[in-house]
Amino acid sequence: MTDRNCPGADNVKIPELEIEKCPECGGEVEFFTREKRSNCTECGHIVTRGQQASCIDWCPMAEECFGKEATKKKVDE
What we know:
It contains 4 helices and 4 strands, in the order αββββααα. The longest helix has 9 residues, at 68-76. It has one domain (10-76). 29% of the residues lie in helices and 21% in strands. By secondary structure, it is α+β, with helices and mostly antiparallel strands. It has helices spanning 10-13, 55-58, 62-66, 68-76, and strands at residues 17-21, 28-32, 37-39, 46-48. The radius of gyration is 15 Å and the shape is elongated. Strands 1-2 form a two-stranded antiparallel sheet.
């Protein structure tokens, strides 16, 4: 990783918990930052969501920050 602190890398390296509503029952669905699918805590429905772009998608220094394996995995998704 570079000596510079990349503010965009934090949400990839240290995922944050995000709560969304279940489209089936309105219950809580917990997602971590990079997750694409999760189960509703109320009814068990599998909820999927589109993935938002992060710095790993566009930053020229992504390989240096996250490593070759992580950036290759992201390209393959």
